[in-house]
TrEMBL record:
SUPFAM superfamilies: YhbY-like
Alphabetized UniProt keyword annotations: RNA-binding
Keyword Magnesium: no
Domain CRM: 1-97
Protein name from the UniProt record: Ribosome assembly RNA-binding protein YhbY
GO molecular function, one term: RNA binding
């Protein structure tokens, strides 16, 4: 799924008030984390993931690994925070412009 610039701006505005609900630490991205993030995206559609200082991997690599694992779209990487979006099958809340 590819997002237009307008859709990304809309999602960034929606994500502004959200707090990160997952943290990636020194262990990096693992299968259990990807499974949990996938479930959270199904419920919420839009989440933030925080990359901690002690994470050995680059934040871009972490974002790619998570997005690939859960089939989500990276909306934004700002600082050490990654914003991810995936359209929900059952709990559709966000209507893209």
């Amino acid at each position: 799924m590819k997002l237009t610039g307008k859709q990304k701006r809309f999602l960034r505005a929606e994500a502004h008030h959200l707090n990160p609900i997952f943290q990636v630490g020194k262990d990096g991205v693992n299968d259990n984390m990807i499974k949990q993030i996938g479930e959270a995206l199904e419920k919420r559609e839009l989440i933030k993931v925080s990359v901690l200082q002690n994470c050995m991997e680059d934040k871009e690599d972490v974002a790619e690994a998570i997005a690939e694992g859960v089939k989500a779209v990276i909306v934004q990487i700002i600082g050490n925070t990654i914003v991810l979006y995936k359209e929900s099958v059952d709990n559709k809340n966000i209507t893209l412009p």
